Amino acid sequence: MSIEYFIAKRIHFRQDKKNVSRPAVRIATIAIALGMAVMLISLAVVVGFKSEVRNKAIGFGGHIQISSIESVGNYEMQPIEPSDAFLKKISALPDVKSLQRFVTKPGIIKTDEDFQGILLKGIAPGANNDFFRSHLVEGEIPAFEADTLTNGVLLSSYLAAKLKLGTGDSFFSYTYTSNEQMRARKFRIQGIYNTSFVEYDKMFILADIRHLQQLNGWKNSQVSGVEIQLTDFDSLEPLSDQIYQLVTQENTDGDKRYYAQTIRDMNPQIFGWLDLIDMNVWVILLLMLAVAGFNMISGLLILILERTNMIGILKSLGATNWSVRKIFLYHSVFLIVRGMFWGNLIGLAFCIIQYYTHLIPLDPESYYVAYVPVVINWLHVVLLNVGTFVLSVLMMVGPSYLITKISPAKIIRYE
């Protein structure tokens, strides 16, 4: 143990209640604790919010969609007929989790009391419905089997409440066929889901893909597009380039005009909004670091001024400026660590409580989620703590330079 560390420890853990610096030190410690807690909570909320909204958008449309180039931006889509060989090439790519064919068709639901515009989405037998299963609130997911055409559909709780429908109820949907004739088809509600993603909940109804193929007059091999699910969102951009190359090669075969677009391309307004949130986090982190840093600087200056007599004696005994500065830097480290400990405790406790209780609600129509989501990424927590500690210590180095201006001869003469 160095002499500087020993003296700093004695100063820190044996402070007299009459010390002038005691309130300033306490304020500095509280500032660090609150700043650390706010930074942790902000990071957890932003990561959770982005993850929740992004996963809901992906659940409705997949990470990447392949469709006809004439269908981009439309729900009434032109048919494509992807070959098994083409789909196998995509499935063989790394990070491709699954892919499924789908058909979408706009329509109207009419009941005795109300009507509502909808978007029927046809799901193929054997499709991955984990997303809707995780948001199922009543009933069950319709069993879209290969050998049986089912009239069962999955409806959102938004539409069910608006149209006063429940599981087991039937309704008629009205759509236009390919030759612009109005067709009615009766469906039965087998399950109700609620994602709180109101923009999509108010439209999407999941049905058997073969119903929509029949309404469009398409063959069983013709679909609106193919959804591709990935194992990792971070691989979206590199994988989309590889899929684009495969699509380009496929387009050279006859009159095919396929087009691949990512979930970012399909929802630019949502992902643009999520990207803006990152800037807010950086602003919060910088502000909290600045507030905590300035409080620490004030506390350190008060400590130095209060201990000028000790500084003069140490220098007169042969201590160097750097040696004395190290004493106060060690003292600052003790304060920073204490503040960070309580900050981590408060911040993580809040995140855990919110994660399990959903204590703070949100308006889903404005935020796409019904409560404040939090995700504790331990790598982010470690990096935030290390970064905060290093920056806080570095901010103390400058003010400690004041010690070099203290002359032992003047201090002793004054005493």
How are the SSEs placed, and which strands pair?
Layout: H1 3-13, H2 21-61, E1 64-68, H3 84-91, E2 96-110, E3 115-123, H4 130-134, E4 136-139, E5 152-156, H5 157-163, E6 170-176, E7 182-193, H6 198-201, E8 204-208, H7 209-216, E9 225-230, H8 236-251, E10 258-262, H9 263-266, H10 268-306, H11 308-316, H12 321-357, H13 364-367, H14 378-397, H15 408-414
Parallel strand pairs: 3-8, 5-7
Antiparallel strand pairs: 1-9, 1-10, 2-3, 2-6, 2-9, 4-7, 6-7
Helix pairs in contact: 1-12, 2-10, 2-12, 2-14, 10-14, 11-15, 12-14
Structural class: alpha+beta
> Low-confidence parts lasting 5 or more residues at pLDDT below 50?
none
Strands, total number: 10
| Number of helical stretches of at least 4 residues | 15
Reading the helices and strands in chain order gives HHEHEEHEEHEEHEHEHEHHHHHHH
- Percentage of residues in DSSP E strands: 15-25%
Q: How many domains would you count in the coordinates?
A: 2
**Kindly, what is the distance between the CA atoms of the first and last residues, rounded to a whole number of angstroms?**
31 Å
Dominant shape: elongated
**What is the arithmetic mean of pLDDT?**
84
Oligomeric description of these chains: single chain
Largest sheet: 10 strands, mixed
Q: Top keywords for this entry?
A:
53% helix; ten-stranded mixed beta sheet; 415 residues; 2 domains; alpha+beta; 15 helices
Tell me what you see in this structure:
The chain is an alpha+beta fold and 415 residues long. It has 2 domains: 3-56 and 270-414, no CATH class; 62-266, no CATH class. It is built from 15 helices and 10 strands. Strands 1, 2, 3, 4, 5, 6, 7, 8, 9 and 10 form a 10-stranded mixed β-sheet that branches. The relative contact order is 0.19.
